[in-house]
Structure formats: C-alpha cells, structure tokens
Amino acid sequence: MEEVLTDQKEITFRIAGNELVSEEGYNLFYMIESLDCFQTLVEKSYLLAGRKSHMTAGDREQLKVKAFNIREGSFVVDLVICLRDVTVSITPLVTAMDPDALWELLVKSYEYLKVVLRAREKGESIHMEIVDSTNAFNIVNTQGDVIINNISADAIDLAKMTAPIYGKMANLISDDGKVDEISVMEKLSDHDVGIKINKEDKSLYKKRTFTDEDSCTFVGKITTANSYNSTGKIEVLEETEELPKGVYPYEFIDKESDGLLRESFTVKKKFVALRKITFNPATLEESVVSLRIVSVKD
Fold first, then answer.
1. Are residues 250 and 199 part of one domain?
2. Same structural domain, 146 and 221
3. Is the pTM of this model over 0.90?
4. What's the domain range around 286?
5. How many domains does one find in the chain?
6. Cα–Cα distance between 186 and 193 in angstroms, integer?
7. Neighbours of 171 (CB within 10 A)
8. What are phi and psi of 181, to 5 degrees?
9. Taking a C-beta distance cutoff of 8 angstroms, is the pair 246, 158 a contact?
C-alpha cells in the first residue's frame, strides 16, 4: 500500500441566465441542482478510477469539492476538487487517483459523450479502433476520420455512467432565458478546457429515431403480412451484430412487392434491410424498432 499526498484541482463553475443575476437574487433551485450534478460527476469519476461501486463516509472525507470566491453577476464560483489521505491498491489502475486525473477523465468522457450524441443527432455512427496495448482507442466517424485520439476505456465507461447526469443538467437550460448556460472550466488554462452545456447542446439529449444509412443482411421469415401496404411482422431467426433475434415490424421499400411478400411468407429467407433505430441519450443505447426491407434472397 502507498499513501498519496493531498492534492487539488482548481476550476470555475458558472451558471448564467435571468434567474441567476445577483441584483435579483439567485434562484436556489437552479443553483443547487447544477452544483449537485457536478458533485455527482466528480464522485462518478472518483468511483470509476478507484474501482468502487458507491461512496462511503470515508470516501467523502477523502474526496471533497469546496467552493471559494463567489462573484456577482451570473452565479460564478471557484471550485476546488480535493483529495487527501488517498490509499491506492498495489494493483495498477488505468486512471490515476489524483484531482488532475479525475478532472481529465471527466473532460475526456464529456468530449466522447458529445461526439456520440452529435453523431446520433445526424443519424450517423462512430466506431472505436484500438491504438495499442495501453487500453486506449481512437474514435472514428463513418468517413474514416479520427475525431478523438487516444481516449481511455475508463473515459468511455464514464461517459455511459454520467450521460443521465448531463441530461439532467441540459434540462435545466430553458428557452425563456431563465438558464442559458452551465459551464465548469479549468482555471489557469490557455484553452477552454472543461464542460459547457448551452441551448445548442440541449437538443442532443432528446430521444431520437432514425433510419440507419447502411443496410444489414439477416435470415428470417415473415410471420404476418398485409399485402395492401406491404407491411407486417418479420422474425429474425439468426442473430447478427447489427440485429438481435426477435420479431420486428417491417415494410417493403418497394410497395409493388406483392410477389416477394407471398414467396417469403412463413418461409426462411435471407433479407436485406435498413434498420429504424431509437437512440436513448440517457443510456447511449440504441434499439431496433422496425425494418425497411430492400430485397429478399433465397
């Protein structure tokens, strides 16, 4: 066991809007909700880095977020992430247990989260490529461009853990100007390093349904059919990476497909289809809700 000396990270928290003006008095609901969300984000980072499942009383003594220097205007306050008397296991951790590392983990995970949400907003997909044996990945878009370099598996996992919290923060942003922006930015940095949520970001946290750009091929059989509008239910018999087994609503893209529909009814065939997908930004999970059949093969 090794004792790590007390350390800290200085950042600036700001929440702006008509309800957060010093002359009018700060609306405690928005102020407390947003600060509580950030406290939870820091704790999630700490738990993941320490391979812990929940915060104990001892953990809350070791990890503290303290507020200093509240300024007038929009609600602006300096926050300090403090760690003291942290004992780290001999087993090496992927993410170091110090305030700088916890902050970097938060920032990288938020960067990844926004990349995923923006891609899904456009109906696009991304994928990960392993960089080397250091458990790092490059995030690549559908055009093959690297949009994030060397992101750790921890940052990706943290994005999934914290997505609902960012969604909650985004819901505090209002169209009527009560809250315009919430930001948590690193102090003494030459660049804007941190977390920022504004009106443009709010739309990213809405559930959305879209049709995938790329077709998938699967083995299945039509179980119910409506020849009037070429729709019905189809059972996927063999699971693929893109499509789990199950029964899905379908429609033929070519509405003049009566012959194909009759030939495929209750008969095992190979289908080519486009997936209609629902994406949940709170979990970063997607589910196939229906299929648009392009063609049928024997």
1. no
2. no
3. no
4. 209-297
5. 2
6. 6
7. 13
8. -160, 145
9. no
